[in-house]
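Record 1 of the preview.
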Amino acid sequence: MTSLPAESYMATMSRVPAFVLILLLAACAAFNVGGQFVAGREALLRNDPQTALGYFLAAAQGDPNYVFRAVYFHEGIWTYVGRAQYATKRYQEARQSLERAVSMDKDDHLARLYLGLSLARTGDLALGIKEIESAMRGIYDWLEYINRTRPFEAYWDPAREIRKAIEKDLEYISAKDFNPEQLIADAEWLGKRMEEEIDYVRRDERRQYEQDHDRRRGVSLGVGIGF
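->
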C-alpha cells in the first residue's frame, strides 16, 4: 500500500473535524494506559514489583483516574502504584499513593489493606492494624455479598479459603494478644491471594461461557436436524 506524501497527509488531517481528532487521541491514550496497566499487573503477579512500578506510574501519569474492573471487583491505579511501592519497600511513598487511592474510593478494599500494611511498616502500628482489620472485613463482606446475590455466578472464593483465613485473622485481632508480624504476613498473603483470585474467576467465567455456548449450539443443531 502506497503511503501518502507528507503534504497530502497533513491536508487530509486538516479536514478531519476537531472533535474527531480529540476522540482519536483519547482512544490512543486509553489504549496506551490499558497496555501499560496490563504489563504492570503481569509483572506484579510474577513477583517483579520493580518492573510493575514503572508501568503503573506511566499508566497513572496517562490517566490518574484509571480503574481496573474484573467480574464485579475493582482497584484504582493508585492502589497498584502503592502496592508496587510497598513490595519494593518504598513504604512512605506507598502510604501516600494508597492514601490517595482510598480518598478516591473508600470501597477499594485492597487499597485500604495495603495502606494498613504501609502504616504498620512506617511505625504507625495501631492505625495500621485498624486499617488492615477494616480492609479484611470489607473484603469478607464483599465476597459474602457477591456470592449471595449471584448464586449462579458464584466463582469467587468457592472453597471459602479466603474467607476462612479472614475469619481466623479477625478472631486473632479481637484477642488483642497477637504477633503483629504474623498479622502483617497474613495481610500480605490476602492481598496476593485476592489478586490471583481475580484471574481464577475470569478463567472460570470464560469456561462457563464456553460451556453454555456449546450447549446452546448443540440444542440449536438438534432442533435444526429434527426439523
